[in-house]
Design goal:
The complex is a heterodimer.
Chain A lengths: L3 H11 L5 E3 L3 H10 L5 E3 L7 H11 L4 E6 H6 L3 H8 L4 E7 L2 E2 L5 E2 L7 H7 L4 E4 L4 H12 L5 E6 L14 H12 L2
Parallel strand pairs in A: 1-2, 1-3, 3-4, 4-8, 7-8
Antiparallel strand pairs in A: 5-6
Chain B lengths: L4 H15 L3 E4 L6 H8 L9 E4 L3 H13 L4 E6 L3 H10 L1 H4 L4 E5 L12 H4 L2 H7 L3 E5 L8 H15 L3 E5 L5
Parallel strand pairs in B: 1-2, 1-3, 3-4, 4-6, 5-6
Helix pairs in contact in B: 1-8, 3-4
The chains are: A alpha/beta, B alpha/beta.
């Protein structure tokens, strides 16, 4: 099964110069471990449930593709944004749900995502495209190529393992992070 | 003589129009029917402006944040009984990240209220915002109606100047 750090490496490589909104916790720390700190990455340190809606606002405000990397637990917390995205239909919004089925950062408690057809929900909400991605490097690579050439909004559910490499805490000042991202975005 | 509901609504419309928002996010509110009507079906419904509903206040906070990071002008219009909903989102993204977002909050539960329950949450609005250190300004029946629009305009500017979320609480029912 695909491990999250490898998925993050592939996502960064596919959208190396696009605004990329990162969900909280281990996802941020693992992205930092894999590719380092980047100005096009918006690190949502503890904004659980918000990355999709933040990405939606960004996608309405800029012309380039906006990529949101979300977990299944955080997506469920901000689930209503799926309907707003389907209503507004931003063609430049891509959502990658790295679905490990658990709240990994808090000890691995199960989420309800295992019984939820996220792809079906996105389609029912009016998203332009949604697909389940094979949990392999090649499967994700192929899906990212599809996303890069397809009008959105697009949702991709990527099953990932619960393996969690040891990483350092990321304790940067959020003001600095937000300002660095904005400076990059409006450069 | 105090202003009428229609005059107060028009003042809120003028205040929002003075900001010239590119995006107007709204939640349902019976006291906002004239204000929302201006943007949904009236002169405020311009081709270069995006007006859309949002189902929850916290989602609106996040969308406003993304728009602000992209340098776009936006306002969210909602009722004070949604303040509790928005606080976690507000205090975990735009407030700590210093993102200048702006909202118009209509008051409920005061003089003239017809709902027997809503005061239970609405009367606690100021205390909720104060406890969260959220900056806000207020206009109501004691405020000359000619001051309403400038307060909204200056509230928006204050958010930009001070790099933080700012809200203007408006009591369209007067009390």
């Amino acid at each position: 099964m695909l491990e999250r750090p490898e998925a993050l490496r592939l996502i960064d490589a596919a959208f190396a110069d696009q605004p990329l909104v990162l969900t909280l916790g281990g996802t941020i720390r693992e992205m930092l471990a894999v590719v380092g700190q980047k100005p096009n990455h918006l690190y949502c340190l503890d904004a659980m449930g918000q990355p999709l809606a933040i990405g939606l606002g960004l996608s309405l405000g800029v012309s380039q593709r906006v990529v949101v990397v979300e977990g299944d637990g955080s997506l469920l917390m901000g689930f209503s944004a799926l309907t707003t995205v389907g209503h507004l239909k931003p063609r430049n919004l891509i959502l990658l749900v790295l679905d490990n089925g658990v709240y990994l950062a808090t000890g691995g408690q199960p989420t309800a995502a295992r019984d939820t057809d996220l792809v079906g929900v996105a389609r029912a909400c009016g998203w332009a495209g949604a697909r389940d991605v094979d949990s392999s490097s090649d499967g994700l690579r192929e899906a990212l190529e599809w996303a890069a050439s397809t009008d959105g909004p697009l949702l991709m559910r990527v099953p990932v393992s619960t393996a969690q490499p040891t990483t350092d805490f990321f304790l940067e000042d959020p003001v600095v992070l937000g300002r660095a991202f904005t400076d990059w975005l409006v450069r | 003589m105090s202003a009428s509901f229609e005059q107060r609504s028009e003042a809120v419309i003028q205040g929002i129009e003075s900001i010239d928002p590119e995006f107007v996010l709204h939640l349902p509110s019976s006291t906002l029917k004239l204000v929302l009507g201006h943007f949904l079906d009236g002169p405020g419904a311009r081709p270069d402006r995006r007006i859309f509903p949002i189902p929850r206040e916290e989602e609106g906070i996040s969308i406003l944040s993304g728009l602000a990071l992209a340098g776009r002008r936006a306002v969210m219009i909602f009722q004070d009984n949604g303040i509790g909903n928005m606080l976690t989102a507000l205090l975990t993204f735009p407030q700590p990240y210093h993102v200048p977002i702006f909202g118009i909050v209509t008051r409920r539960g005061g003089l003239g209220e017809y709902n027997s329950m809503i005061h239970t949450i609405s009367e606690r609005s100021e205390r909720l915002l104060n406890a969260a250190d959220v900056r806000y300004f207020q206009v109501d029946g004691r405020t000359p109606v000619e001051d309403w629009a400038p307060t909204i305009q200056r509230g928006y500017a204050f958010a930009q100047t001070t790099h933080r979320p700012v809200f203007v609480l408006v009591n369209l029912m007067g009390g």
